[in-house]
Design a protein that fits this description.
CATH topology: Rossmann fold
CATH architecture: 3-Layer(aba) Sandwich
Largest sheet: 5 strands, parallel
Number of helices: 5
Strand content: 15-25%
Number of domains: 1
CATH class: Alpha Beta
Strand order of the largest sheet: 2-1-4-5-6
Radius of gyration: 14 Å
Helix content: 25-40%
Structural class: alpha/beta
């Protein structure tokens, strides 16, 4: 198990990316945090890594993004033998019960709603930051 998995933050809202990064750090999260604007950007990056490179990720996915949204990215992550064991946290403003159910059916680990209120958003990210270090994430290599 890798003690410090890379946090992959996928959100097309740059302001949310900054708030996530800054407030995870404020909560004492020392993992590398790598931002992507959408799922396609992550998979393009993933394709450039050496095939046998060990990987350990925690994914924070927004639902609504251009090119590849969070649901499609979740679907592709859970279909990939080298990534399916990685925890996926849906972190989105959406609160549609059908979307929540669909994400859980596809294998998300946790569905958190981003508060619209700025201070509440900051507080929820800090609390997430207190939880992340408790997660044990396997290290895998591509098949």
């Amino acid at each position: 198990m890798n003690e410090l998995p890379t946090i992959i933050s996928v959100d097309d809202d740059e302001g949310h990316q900054i708030l996530i990064h800054d407030n995870l750090e404020a909560a004492g999260v020392f993992n590398s945090i790598v931002p992507f604007r959408d799922g396609q950007e992550f998979f393009d990056f993933q394709a450039t890594l050496p095939a046998k490179a060990p990987r350990s990720y925690v994914f924070l996915l927004d639902l609504r993004m251009p090119r590849m949204d969070g649901v499609e990215m979740l679907r592709r992550l859970k279909a990939d033998p080298s990534l399916r064991k990685m925890p996926v946290i849906m972190l989105t403003t959406a609160d549609d019960s059908r979307e929540i159910e669909r994400c859980h059916e596809l294998g998300c680990s946790l569905f958190l709603q981003k508060p619209v209120n700025h201070d509440q958003f900051i507080e929820s990210i800090r609390r997430l930051g207190w939880f992340l270090p408790l997660m044990k994430v396997p290290t895998v290599t591509a098949a």
